[in-house]
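User: Can you write out an input/output pair for a complex, sequences first and structure second?

Assistant: Here is one pair. Inputs:
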Amino acid sequence: MTRYIIRRLLQFIPVVFISTLIVYALVFAIPGDPIRALAGDRAMSEAVQESLREQYNLNDPFIVQYAKYMWGVFTALDFGTTFQGRPVLDIITQRLPVTLQLAGVTFVVQAIIGVIAGALAAINRDRFLDRLVQVSTVVVVAMPVLVIAFLLQLTFGLNLGWFPISGTGQGLRSFILPAIALGAVSMAMIARLLRSELLDALQSDYVRTATAKGLTRSRVIGRHGMRNSMIPVVTFMGADLATMMSGTILVETIFNLPGLGEQVFSSIQAQEGTVVVGIVTLFVLFFVVINLIVDIIYGLLDPRIRYE
Amino acid sequence: MRPVTKRTALAGGSLTAALVLSSCALGEPDGDGDAGTLSTYQCEPQYLTPGNSAEVCGAGVLETLFTGLTEIDYETNEAIPAVAESWESEDNVTWTFELGEDWTFHNGEELTSQHFVDTFNWTVDPDNAQNNAEYYEFFLGYDEVADEEAEELEGVRALDDHTLEIELAEPFGQLPNMLSLVGFSPLPEAAFEDMEAFEQAPIGNGRYQMDGEWVHDQEILTERYEDYPGDNPGEAERIEHMIYNDVATAYQEVQAGNLDLLYNAPPENISMLEDDFGDRQESFETGTLTFLGIPTYQEEFEDPQIRQALSMAVDREEIIDGLFEGTLTPAGSFLPPVLPEGREDACEFCEYDPDAAAELYEQAGGPDELTVYFNSGAGHDEWVEAVTNQWDQNLGIEEVNFESMEFAQYLDLLDEEDIEGPYRLGWTLSYPSAQESLEPMYSSTASRNNTGWSSEEFDELIAQANAADAEDSEEAYQEAEEVLLEELPVIPLWFESQNVVWSENIDGVEITPRGLPQLERIEVLD
């Protein structure tokens, strides 16, 4: 097991190198001069533009820029700055907690609602509750996140006033609506996935045996049915947590949450290569670490899976 | 198992935070606890160093934190005394400013004329790469400092603690007006010691002082500076600049009463403004001109008659009614009507006259194929298409190609003079002066003149107008404008409006020609 983990950790190194190179190249490839666009319709004077280009190595060829960037990262832990001179590291440490909170709340919300809805649907197969879950999940999956977010904001924020419309001013409560918007699709996927898994499980031999032994229905479903049906659900949720980062770009912008996603969005627009690379690399790391964790949990849930 | 415990710990942590915060919220009902506080929409400033801030997000904050030598009376758009109690000049070249004696920075430091000298020298120093340096180009000695041949501006001198002399390279009657710009605000000693730290919590001499640091992308809190010696201190006790990335979100917050002011409601909400806000909304005309520039360096656009025909073939009213709910002002001039110099129908060729346009276009041999340029993702698609439809209908220009691209790339193309047809651009006034609306855009030496158009007559008339006293310059600038109205290097389309919405807590919202609210004058009701 330890050897397996070490091997996986070593694989992180090329992943990080290649992803930073690709991201840097992509930002570099965006046409146009970012410094020229900084000031909008009213351009800055040539002298100021030139000194900024010099300061951010924008006059160098791509590979030199990238090398200078990586050199700074490895020799001085210098992740660069925005065009306004703010260190990228500052931005990440300020914004990471917001994104982590959002991801955490989303994870919990989608797990609770998804699992309850899925289980209820399976238990009440073909009855009203089941139909309700089936129809509502299709609707949710079909709706763009953008629409879901605005609907939530309008209904529960503005009209009913149950939750704040935007910002992080009210602690956990501020994250509920964004979390529902961010997790809506996965929530529906979890419900549908669990429903079908649980239906399969409930028809299997070991469940019938348990029922025949005279166990109560809740115990049969809870201990025997659910446990086996959860394996694919956990895999899905792990992978989903990793991909959730890209969803934060939209949701954080709409709900005005000062997290990493919002920053990526504005930095891509401003062509701030160093910021985009810093944050996206973090997302990549997040992705590979979570995948590793999911694989490990897999082994714990199902003893038949072993790693060498 | 470790990751699982981590996750639980995380959820638990935010839960306790939520409990603490919600118990605070219980003690303070909405609104009442906030008497005297104005909360306003803000976009994230690029910089909060006055010399570097050249965009509206920074200006919105800095104008409350700093007061320059002069201010603008927005009723008349004339310069009025601020730190300078009075000023005089015989020849519009050498100016003497008498400074008030009670001015202090928020840290108690006394403000003297030497502060202005130091600040101006620091701002123009190319090593400091300040955006607003270029506004100093009228000052004597600017070129030498910019070329690193001199350390200090020759034309800026402190005659004594409260007398400042500014000598210009050429006569410029608009100087007091220009000095109201935030880029001419004085900096305290502390700023020069550590400019980076200073920018996080600027110490100014204005009506409001920082309460804490600039929380990036979240908020900038300020409170009234009680030792402000000026005649008209701020109305609200506190101004809280709340930073939003998305105006649509801020719009909802004003609707819910959580935010007091949004000075640029999103265009897609224009039709709902009245339903949503009743009489707590207004559309304010600004000095920002939207136009289609014409690359006169291309052979087919050399003839002014072609440009005149293109202009006459656009029904501005129809586009404004159809796409902007009638909120914009059709341009009948280059000088914005919000300025005293602006005349609403000075432009003969801006009046819609499809028949005359067609005849003129035919006669001048205008091209029957066009490429039109605009920057993407900024809501220009629809109206640009509407304009080209009218050209098709009225001039028979059937084949139109659209080139839309990201702003950065777009600007590169303009600079390289690689444009083959009309292009969209706008021009906002940094300070409300006729000079500012004409010279930087159309004079032959202006770096922002992308049309390739140049006219000695125009340059001469501008120089004459600049040399005149501010009171006598009105007609002189209008004369220069006449040249543009005949030649049309760009086709003026309309002057932008800003749709402002506000909450029930405040009153007295006014917008400057630049499009910013006059925050210090807004009253907070209780």
